[in-house]
Design goal:
alpha/beta, eight-stranded parallel β-sheet, two-stranded antiparallel ribbon, 15% strand
Length: 270
């Protein structure tokens, strides 16, 4: 039987979030409690790249690198400054790790490469290098945080390749996995991400990740400021997901229909 793994999706972890990030933020004290709960439940965190390679080897019949008995993956989108200030020390305290998906055009010192509008204070390149140096996986998250499934081919190519080039050039390490901005993707976007050489990619879908989803559509569970600790315990165990994410799933279906219509009509939608 294929293992099903909780892959958690975080954004900002701070006491005073900006209005734009408030809903998807988590208070540092709550994040600390969540890490403690994962330890109490016997979970051990690995990076998304570790999970993807395990499942890829398993799919070919090769002996995969081992995973912990109870595996969890912690992912963080965008690259907010509080990752360096708050998340990294807490991960260190709990002897944990994670994967940080970075929007390069939003970084604090993006300079001439600045693109899009950051929703909160962002990491600098120097801070990002420190994060990578402490064992956190750095993944791609596009250059300007565009809705990739709405972009024409040339702009889609630019979003992926500029992001990938900047990360690999500045950090001098391979970028192995990708997080779709907003969780939006379609078969065309997934093919483009694969063509860039990424080994895997994360959507959202609010269910447990499963090898059968394929390496470029792995599910994540949204963690937000309103996620109660009791619900957190339930969802990492893969229970009550329909109840906890009923509204998310309804909105996802609606957004998907709207995006398909925009794409067919040629409206950029971003």
């Amino acid at each position: 039987m294929t293992a099903r793994i909780p892959v958690l999706m975080y954004h900002s972890v701070c006491a005073r979030p900006t209005p734009e990030t408030a809903g998807l933020s988590v208070h540092p004290a709550v994040f600390d409690e969540q890490l403690a709960v994962l330890g109490d439940l016997g979970f051990t965190a690995v990076t998304m790249a570790d999970l993807v390679e395990h499942w890829r080897r398993q799919a070919t019949g090769a002996a995969p690198p081992p995973l912990p008995e109870r595996t969890v993956v912690l992912t963080f989108d965008d690259g907010y400054a509080d990752f360096h200030e708050t998340v990294l020390p807490l991960l260190d305290r709990h002897r944990s790790t994670g994967t940080l998906y970075v929007t390069t055009g939003w970084l604090a010192d993006a300079g001439p490469q600045r693109a899009g509008r950051a929703l909160a204070p962002m990491l600098s390149w120097g801070q990002l290098a420190e994060v990578a140096g402490q064992g956190v996986e750095i993944g791609g998250h596009s250059h300007s945080h565009a809705q990739l499934d709405q972009l024409p081919e040339r702009l889609l190519f630019d979003e992926l390749t500029i992001n990938q080039f900047l990360l690999e050039d500045r950090l001098q390490r391979r970028v192995a996995t990708f997080g779709y901005p907003f969780g939006y993707s379609d078969s065309r976007v997934r093919r483009a991400v694969r063509a860039c050489g990424y080994r895997g990619a994360c959507a959202v879908t609010n269910t447990l990740a499963d090898r059968r989803q394929g390496p470029y559509a792995l599910a994540r569970l949204t963690i937000r400021r309103s996620t109660a600790l009791a619900d957190f315990c339930t969802l990492v165990e893969g229970q009550s997901l329909t109840r906890l994410y009923a509204r998310d799933r309804l909105l996802t279906r609606g957004y998907a229909a709207v995006r398909r219509a925009r794409r067919l009509l040629g409206s950029p939608g971003y």
